[in-house]
Recover the amino acids of this structure.
């Protein structure tokens, strides 16, 4: 190593590079410490434990920069120049400025950098550029390796979902049999109509914890039951970027399903395609309901819709002259975009009881006559929505193509082009995901047989006079909605089945 000018106070900065372990860091520490001792320096160690490419996630480097600006050191010792940072140009400029302005040298086992020397500064900029290039290449190779690994059936997505565990030897996941018991219970309870919130509360009371050792909640239950991993598939590339608020990287965004890497039958499945479709549809439907309705507090919570405007109807409980509690369906007060209130009339819940019970009996008789058919709620409305979404997707793709044409013709600037393209790309992704959801729902409705419906109706009728919340759970498995309309004092109640 070249001759070093008079130096007394030095700092050693240690940071692991991607792919290195603790043993590598210990070797670097030993080598740099020996270098300092051979020159009779007593170094102060700055060991970066939790690190990232941005300065915001390198607390020891930020601390070191503050000490450099306070002129505490004559030199900083690192194993290679690129250990100072592989971040963006702004971060690199901050580090160089602090070292140059404080006249602090950079010492590696191969070379001494004096940033006040023009040639050394140019070399440092070149090395920084190469370090950033190498970092991007490493990230690219890592992402490519994960994609290839996923296609070969390896698990590449971090901690696997409950009830799976990761086997480091073969890089695959397997079912933890103890956890499977709890998973099956959760799955079956939701399939029976149990609200996720109530189920989470039950699990917490019994002392069960999630895979992360936390209390259960309705979000955790939804996430594990709508994760395609449980079908035996490995899915990679659903998102890109980072969701961290401060990290200097691409923002987190969802990737269109068509661009995901999906490899089937890579591990043992813990639910069937039919169960998954049912659970997915259940959570999609509940997400659109009012929070009170999800708890099934009333017999028809979440089921009664306005026969005029389609808006969800709510309930009110009153005491009659004899002091008896009576439940009413409230009049509809939904206003349209012009401020005109619907005002479709209300009525006693007992009228709904009589109409729904009679229609369930009639429906049961129809199903018994045609067990091999499919007399459920047809998919006409869903197919209509599917066609509309397909048309909107085609329009969005055409609009995106026109943006390219306008840019090529010079009608818009590069900035306008990038903004318009990003907007259309996001719209296309949303529509593609919407199409996938609609196809899943149509597939779900087509898979339900009349035998399935008949069995569920039998369960409903068996507990008809029971607790309202229990009846509601079973009704939701049979009924899609109850249209409630009151015109000129005449009540019309029509049940639409699932």
């Amino acid at each position: 190593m070249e001759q070093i000018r008079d130096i007394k106070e030095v700092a050693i900065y240690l940071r692991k590079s991607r792919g290195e372990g603790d043993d590598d860091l210990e070797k670097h520490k030993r080598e740099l410490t020996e270098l300092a001792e051979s020159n009779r320096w007593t170094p102060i160690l700055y060991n970066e434990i939790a690190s990232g490419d941005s300065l915001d996630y390198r607390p020891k480097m930020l601390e070191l920069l503050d000490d450099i600006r306070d002129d505490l050191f004559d030199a900083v010792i690192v194993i290679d120049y690129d250990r100072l940072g592989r971040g963006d140009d702004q971060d690199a400029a901050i580090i160089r400025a602090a070292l140059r302005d404080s006249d602090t040298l950079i010492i590696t086992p191969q070379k001494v950098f004096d940033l006040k020397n023009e040639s050394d500064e140019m070399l440092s900029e070149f090395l920084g550029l190469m370090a950033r290039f190498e970092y991007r290449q490493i990230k690219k190779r890592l992402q490519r390796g994960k994609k290839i690994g996923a296609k070969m059936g390896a698990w590449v997505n971090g901690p696997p979902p409950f009830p799976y565990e990761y086997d480091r030897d073969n890089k695959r996941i397997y079912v933890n049999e103890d956890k499977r018991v709890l998973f099956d219970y959760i799955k079956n309870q939701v399939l029976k109509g149990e609200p996720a919130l109530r189920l989470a509360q039950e699990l917490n009371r019994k002392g069960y914890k999630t895979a992360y050792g936390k209390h259960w909640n309705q979000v955790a239950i939804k996430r594990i039951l709508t994760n395609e991993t449980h079908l035996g598939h490995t899915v990679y590339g659903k998102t890109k970027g980072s969701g961290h608020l401060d990290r200097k990287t691409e923002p987190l965004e969802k990737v269109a399903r068509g661009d995901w890497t999906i490899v089937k039958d890579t591990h043992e499945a813990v639910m069937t395609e039919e169960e998954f479709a049912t659970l997915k549809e259940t959570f999609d439907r509940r997400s659109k309901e009012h929070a009170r309705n999800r708890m099934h507090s009333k017999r028809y919570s979440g089921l009664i819709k306005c026969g005029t405007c389609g808006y969800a109807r709510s309930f009110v409980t009153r005491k009659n002259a004899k002091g008896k509690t009576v439940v009413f369906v409230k009049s509809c007060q939904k206003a349209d975009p012009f401020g005109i209130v619907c005002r479709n009339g209300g009525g006693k819940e007992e009228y709904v009881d009589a109409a729904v019970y009679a229609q369930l009996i009639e429906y049961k008789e129809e199903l018994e006559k045609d067990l091999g058919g499919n007399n459920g709620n047809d998919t006409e409305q869903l197919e209509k929505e599917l066609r509309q979404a397909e048309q909107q997707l085609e329009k969005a793709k055409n609009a995106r193509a026109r943006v390219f044409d306008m840019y090529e013709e010079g009608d818009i600037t590069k900035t306008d082009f990038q903004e318009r393209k990003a907007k259309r790309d996001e719209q296309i992704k949303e529509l593609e995901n919407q199409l996938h959801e609609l196809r899943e729902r149509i597939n779900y409705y087509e898979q339900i047989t009349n035998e399935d419906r008949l069995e569920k109706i039998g369960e409903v009728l068996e507990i008809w006079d029971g607790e309202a919340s229990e009846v509601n759970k079973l009704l939701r498995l049979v009924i899609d909605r109850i249209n409630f309309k009151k015109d000129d004092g005449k009540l019309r109640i029509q049940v639409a089945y699932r």
